């Protein structure tokens, strides 16, 4: 372990009984216990003025609505420790020092003000984003385009599409091979990531490799390091954390890095402020990344950058509309590239962030969640999603669409399903692409059993949501149904291509069950 | 104090496991509501150990071994502490002054006692007949865990954010810390019972199903039903376990019920029906609530496996089930699609909560089948040819799609107006694919050609 000695690594570890909640015994203010208990090794004789201050903090009349006792106590502890460490216990004017409650209130107000400013800024930027770039709109909600693909963040591919005739457009994303390439790319990325992770390990873990897993090591390290930075490196104006179970949680880092781009590295120690970008910089980073994605469409790069962006937000405890925006954009890009693992990570985060009412597009991502569970055939989770739906959720267009998709499939109504496929809002089609082939096979098994003796290819093209007859034929041939196609002459003399349903039945039955048996459920939400 | 230990000695002398368990109950018996208070007040934190030691050890008229008496000593001291926490929490709740984490302290106190019980059973110091004490401990461990979790969610909210140097902002959503912990303790209990090697007459194996049932209950609450499958598997793997029918009936019913529900959720409706039917038959006559639970799953099961609907006779004793299922059943019978959709929607919240929505939804197929069957019946017979008699009458089996389409449009009400013929064909294709209808669609002629014998299998036509 060759981490340079940083201030928070030098203090002795805190006693194991640090968190013992002595609060219950403190019904009556007992200043002697309240403060020192948190730091027993240092026997400090608390001056009377400090004791009085503690007593005043606990007095019932000082109680402030909305600040619970635990938070207040933590603040109190911070204040006194801060003073003690500065050897300023006797210098502070305790009698007129603001009570912890008051300080917390002030901090909250300040935080709110910052948030509001930021909100205004972000709204502004969202507006910018909505203005046409290169002559086409790139914000889904504002896009009147009837095209199946509506991704706010993917303009390059769309841009390329513009040169193609409209019926080729979805086709481009649609064909099976295209997805295979995506998958491979995802795999390649993953391999890449793994190698990088290994490198990380080599960098950070001592040479004699330990028997503990990386995660365990980190946990242990967190256990020993965090409390120190919590007490010492946290400046007093940073609110003490209230939403973590971990009483020792590290205070947020305040970044000073001004670089816009940064490679992602998995952290194994608290980051140095000079390597972390503050919010103002991150906001510019996001704009830059959006632009780069539009221009270069390099997924490996963009994913890496987004991960470091997310990490910087996390270590600085930034949870606001901007955070939501970052995760949403990353999720959309991952979806477009079929990177389900990364998409799932973002989706999980978003779910929790939405529960904090930080804005964003909860309906859009709720719809994705429903579609995803259709893909994984996960009835248990689907049931849970349905159970959590509120009437407000159900009134949202995207959610309604996803629910209709679900019920169409549950009823076996492939006719309606493929209509819904062609009409998916936002980026729903990318998710539906994951199971569209499977459902086509199921529908074909169905049709082969019900229709005799044959059906026109035209009929299949329309019923199964193909863009064109050749695409439909290609799909059939790829699945070895080419032998069952036959030219027939109509009464009016025209030749039409038909599929012999009675003969193709067994083939599609087999393909159908194979398709349903291997649902890939890596990275479940 | 004296009363408690008098009962204790009696139970020990009689080898009465359930009596012994009753003494350790965290709830006062109905005929003696002040019992817990009296017990708690009769001592204090300093003296409790001595008091209990005196009561257990030195008035040892039943000849407990030294180990056993000191073990009971530990248990009762721990019980006394837990009672203190329980009384405080209940009082706080009644006065509306519950402190943060108070139910969590109850849970922890109760858990300490539970752990002691498990420990002394594992080391064979407690006799196997006292296993009901474990049942009781496990039962309330789960209850206290749930209370603790719901209190902590209220205080801290549902989301935990990362504080360290993680990659992502949120570390977890949905808090069930205590209940998950309880599940681990219950699991220890379960393996303790399942793995006991004492001769069967005097074995803790008899606790296997009770503890398994507790675990099922916990897993369901945790939404971790897949864990329950492991429990079933390990029971099946234990070859020397006595057969289920030798266990108390209450254990049997609950176990069958849960196995039934678990297989139901895995969509293995045949197995589910089998297990649920057995549970139904074994269920105690007056246990209305349990019967209701069993029927909640058995009815959808039979709808799918046998296409049977509950009679109103069956549902009569259960008004709640009556109101949930009878509208659906009526619509299915009539082939009333619009009514079915409305009934399903009306009950959606309840159905989803019970996890039967996705199964009941499939009842729509039967509804549609019944509707199409009516069209078929209304189509009448083929005209008789020369020389044929009434006996030769056969139904008209070539039916234009538009006839079915008209019926479906009528049946679906306003929703049906936007239905085109292709979608109608798709619905008929589904009927044929699912073997609810026999025949085929001749698309060029816009006809459905039905099988002359048994166009609608199992319905007599």
UniProtKB/TrEMBL annotation, chain A:
Region (Disordered): 128-169, 186-240
Biased composition (Polar residues): 128-138
Pfam annotation, one family: SAC3_GANP
Domain SAC3/GANP/THP3 conserved: 262-479
InterPro entries from the UniProt entry: SAC3/GANP/THP3, SAC3/GANP/THP3_conserved
CC annotations in GO: nucleus
Gene3D superfamilies linked to this entry: 1.25.40.990
Protein name: SAC3/GANP/THP3 conserved domain-containing protein
Provenance organism: Lepidopterella palustris CBS 459.81
TrEMBL record, chain B:
Any GO MF annotation of the entry: double-stranded DNA binding
Residue stretches making up the PCI domain: 253-455
Pfam families: PCI
PROSITE patterns: PCI
Record-linked InterPro entries: Csn12-like, PCI_dom, WH-like_DNA-bd_sf
Protein family: Belongs to the CSN12 family.
Protein name as catalogued: Protein CSN12 homolog
Organism listed in the record: Lepidopterella palustris CBS 459.81
Organism taxonomic ancestry: Eukaryota, Fungi, Dikarya, Ascomycota, Pezizomycotina
């Amino acid at each position: 372990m060759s981490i340079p000695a940083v201030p928070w690594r030098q203090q002795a570890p805190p006693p194991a009984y640090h968190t013992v909640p002595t609060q219950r015994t403190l019904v009556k203010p007992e200043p002697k216990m309240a403060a020192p208990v948190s730091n027993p090794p240092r026997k400090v004789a608390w001056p009377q003025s400090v004791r009085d201050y503690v007593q005043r903090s606990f007095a019932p009349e000082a109680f402030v609505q909305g600040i619970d006792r635990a938070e207040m106590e933590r603040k109190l502890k911070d204040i006194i420790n801060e003073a003690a460490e500065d050897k300023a216990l006797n210098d502070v004017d305790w009698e007129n020092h603001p009570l912890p409650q008051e300080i917390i209130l002030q901090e909250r107000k300040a935080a709110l003000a910052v948030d509001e400013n930021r909100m205004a800024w972000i709204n502004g930027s969202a507006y910018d984003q909505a203005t046409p770039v290169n002559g086409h709109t790139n914000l889904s909600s504002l896009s009147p385009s009837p095209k199946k693909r509506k991704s706010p963040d993917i303009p390059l591919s769309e841009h390329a599409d513009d040169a193609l005739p409209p019926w080729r457009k979805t086709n481009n994303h649609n064909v099976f091979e295209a997805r295979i390439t995506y998958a491979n790319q995802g795999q390649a990325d993953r391999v890449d990531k793994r190698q990088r992770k290994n490198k990380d390990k080599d960098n950070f873990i001592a040479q004699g490799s330990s028997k503990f897993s990386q995660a365990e090591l980190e946990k242990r390290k967190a256990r020993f390091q965090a409390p120190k930075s919590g007490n010492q490196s946290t400046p007093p104006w940073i609110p003490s954390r209230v939403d973590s179970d971990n009483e020792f949680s590290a205070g947020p880092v305040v970044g000073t890095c001004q670089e816009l781009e940064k490679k992602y590295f998995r952290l194994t120690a608290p980051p140095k402020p000079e390597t972390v970008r503050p919010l103002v910089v991150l906001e510019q980073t996001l704009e830059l990344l959006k632009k780069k994605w539009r221009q270069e469409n390099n997924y490996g790069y963009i994913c890496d950058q987004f991960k470091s962006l997310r990490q910087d937000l996390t270590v600085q405890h930034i949870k606001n509309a901007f955070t939501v925006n970052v995760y949403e954009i990353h999720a959309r890009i991952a979806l477009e590239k079929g990177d389900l693992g990364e998409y799932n990570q973002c989706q999980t985060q978003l779910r929790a962030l939405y529960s904090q009412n930080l804005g964003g597009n909860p309906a859009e991502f709720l719809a994705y969640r429903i579609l995803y569970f259709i893909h994984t055939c996960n009835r248990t989770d689907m049931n849970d999603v349905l159970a959590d739906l509120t009437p407000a959720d159900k009134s949202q267009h995207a959610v309604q669409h996803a629910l209709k998709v679900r019920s169409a499939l549950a009823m076996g109504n492939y006719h309606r399903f493929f209509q819904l496929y062609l009409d998916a809002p936002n980026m729903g089609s990318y998710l539906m692409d994951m199971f569209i082939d499977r459902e086509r096979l199921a529908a074909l098994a169905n049709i082969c059993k019900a229709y005799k003796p044959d059906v026109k290819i035209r009929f299949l093209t329309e019923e199964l949501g193909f863009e064109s007859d050749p695409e439909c034929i290609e799909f059939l041939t790829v699945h070895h149904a080419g032998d069952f196609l036959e030219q027939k002459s109509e009464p009016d003399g025209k030749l039409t291509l038909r599929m012999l349903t009675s003969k193709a039945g067994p083939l599609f039955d087999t393909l159908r069950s194979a398709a349903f048996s291997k649902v890939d459920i890596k990275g479940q939400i | 104090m004296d009363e408690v230990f008098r009962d204790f000695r009696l139970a020990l002398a009689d080898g009465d496991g359930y009596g012994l368990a009753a003494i350790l109950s965290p709830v006062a018996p109905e005929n003696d509501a002040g019992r817990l208070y009296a017990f708690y007040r009769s001592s204090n934190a300093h003296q409790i150990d001595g008091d209990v030691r005196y009561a257990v050890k030195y008035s040892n008229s039943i000849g407990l071994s030294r180990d056993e008496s000191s073990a009971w000593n530990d248990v009762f001291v721990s019980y006394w502490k837990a009672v203190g926490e329980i009384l405080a929490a209940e009082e706080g709740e009644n006065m509306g002054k519950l402190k943060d984490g108070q139910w969590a302290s109850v849970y922890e106190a109760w858990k300490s006692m539970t752990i002691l019980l498990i420990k002394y059973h594992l080391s064979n110091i407690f006799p196997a007949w006292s296993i009901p004490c474990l049942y009781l401990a496990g039962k309330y461990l789960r209850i206290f865990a749930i209370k603790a979790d719901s209190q902590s969610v209220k205080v801290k909210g549902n989301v935990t954010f990362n504080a360290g140097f993680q990659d992502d902002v949120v570390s977890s959503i949905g808090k069930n810390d205590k209940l998950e912990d309880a599940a681990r303790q219950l699991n220890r209990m379960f393996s303790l019972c399942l793995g006991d090697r004492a001769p069967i007459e005097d074995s803790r194996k008899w606790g296997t199903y009770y503890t398994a049932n507790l675990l099922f209950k916990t897993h369901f609450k945790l939404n971790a039903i897949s864990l329950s499958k492991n429990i079933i598997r390990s029971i099946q793997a234990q070859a020397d376990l006595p057969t289920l029918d030798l266990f108390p009936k209450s254990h049997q019913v609950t176990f069958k019920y849960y196995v039934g529900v678990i297989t139901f959720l895995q969509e293995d409706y045949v197995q589910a029906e089998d297990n649920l039917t057995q549970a139904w038959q074994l269920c105690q006559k007056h246990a209305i609530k349990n019967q209701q639970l069993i029927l909640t799953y058995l009815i959808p099961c039979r709808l799918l496996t046998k296409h049977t609907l509950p009679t109103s006779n069956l549902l009569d004793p259960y008004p709640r089930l009556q109101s949930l299922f009878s509208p659906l059943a009526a619509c299915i019978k009539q082939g009333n699609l619009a009514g079915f959709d409305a009934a399903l929607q009306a009950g959606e919240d309840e159905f989803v909560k019970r996890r039967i929505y996705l199964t009941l939804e499939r009842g729509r197929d039967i509804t549609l089948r019944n509707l199409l069957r009516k069209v078929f019946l209304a189509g009448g017979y083929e005209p008789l040819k020369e020389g044929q008699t009434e006996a030769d009458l056969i139904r008209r089996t070539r039916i234009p799609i538009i006839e079915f389409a008209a019926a479906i449009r009528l049946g679906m009400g306003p929703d049906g107006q936007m239905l085109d013929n292709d979608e109608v064909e798709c619905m008929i294709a589904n009927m044929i694919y699912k073997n609810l209808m026999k025949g085929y669609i001749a698309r060029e002629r816009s006809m459905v050609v039905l099988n002359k014998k048994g166009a609608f299998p199992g319905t007599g036509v």
